[in-house]
Amino acid sequence: MTPQEAEALVREGAAIDAGAAAHSEAAASGNLDERGQIVAPDENARAMEWFMVPKVIAWAITAVFPETAPNYSDAKCMELAHAIVPVADKYGLSGVGDSPELMLLLATGMFCAPGYLAHKGRKEKAIAEEKARLEGGSDGSRE
User: Which of 43, 105, 135, 142 has the greatest number of beta carbons closer than 10 A?
Assistant: First the structure.
């Protein structure tokens, strides 16, 4: 066997190993069809991995500014999730769970939300009561 033939065999072996590694990775991530062929992950499935991020942000914004709710539909949140996918791929993230910092941020926001909403409710109630007091009671008299 010549050195060139040996080198060709080494390259062929490396290509086989690379293909086997890609196949194993695809199998682990569920990206194989029923015949065992590698398939690209569904774009919507990848976006669904990130859908929670814009959904939680939308929830937080609409809690503060309810009038903005029509701007944060599920379709708009999914649109943003699709935009997140290439950036996540660039940094090697495969879902929200891959970023402990992001999980902490989202969990903290969800943890604080009930307290914020209770405070907001009390403030709105106090403003309404003060407005009613300034405008007078239902009989038209001032207190």
Answer: 105
